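not sure who needs this but someone in the group chat was asking about SCO0930 family lipoprotein from Streptomyces goshikiensis so here u go. i didnt clean anything up, its just raw.
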Amino acid sequence: MAAGSVAAVILLAAGCGAGDSTSAKSANSVLPASDSKAIGSGYGADSGYGSGGTGADPSGGSAAGAGDKAGPAGQLAVRDIPDVGSVVTDNAGATLYRFDKDGNKPPKSNCDGDCAKTWPAVPASDASASEGIDAALLGEVVRTDGSKQLTLGGWPVYRYAKDTQAGDAKGEGVGGTWHALAADGKKAIDQKGGGAKGGEQGGGGESGAGQDTAQKPAAGTGDKTGKAGAELSIVANEKLGKILVDAEGRTLYRFNKDSAWPMKFGCLGACLDTWKPAAPVDKAKASGIPSALVGSVKRPDGSMQLTIDCWPVYLFTGDTEPGQTNGHNKQGLWFAVNEAGKKVPAAG
């Protein structure tokens, strides 16, 4: 009996790797192992990137040395950061950020509690402008704890706990709501190269389009979302090559902290605020990818999630339009998927 059980497990594992229909049904009943847990315990979208990022501690909280991030900003400066643009930094070279859920007319901070542990507020005291920054744009706002926070162009100013070196801008685009500050208080990414593609989004909406590259259909796949009526398609991205998208043309991602076999989920809890499990599809309506790779799995909450080559796949809330790939290589853990069901390399 023991030998038979081992053989059954081996067959199931092999079948899952092949992605046939029998294994897909078996995988649906496989729940995460008992040691699976949410990755990180930070605020909302941030914890969705896992706790293994550079400078992050195992609990997903503030990075090493993050206590210094609550200190005065000193003389602000403007520096160019690759892939982000001209951003405002403090006197130590730390990138400064704004939060889309805050307000600037009038100034208001909506980042407290756990949020403020990951995004420490910059004190209003001892802040001054240097060349390239209009001193008249500097101000302050009183937080819920009574402390005074620096504002730039009316926007409350923050540091990111996981930026560990001068010039880091790991907080850019987190959750689609955190952005490095430009000298005028706007989003630096929107001004890179003369403005975000398609224009700046108004109303405090999510941004990130300026850091993306356009996608065009792969040969033989028809329009941008692939074959007409397809629930999964392969499209050609100018930077990443052939990648998998859903019926609406949205990029699908896999997470290094998940596991295909044994099936385990690394994205739980607050992670799901940023990374949404993709819904299962009819494998007969997959275009450009072998139908045998398409399956589904039951999550701990009982919902079903799409799998590709036995890996759960997700949508990124930071992708606000079809064709964007802002989630690729986030924290070195999240990756787009190619036509073979494998993750696209970090370098694209």
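also The helical segments are 2-18, 21-28, 114-118, 188-191. if thats useful
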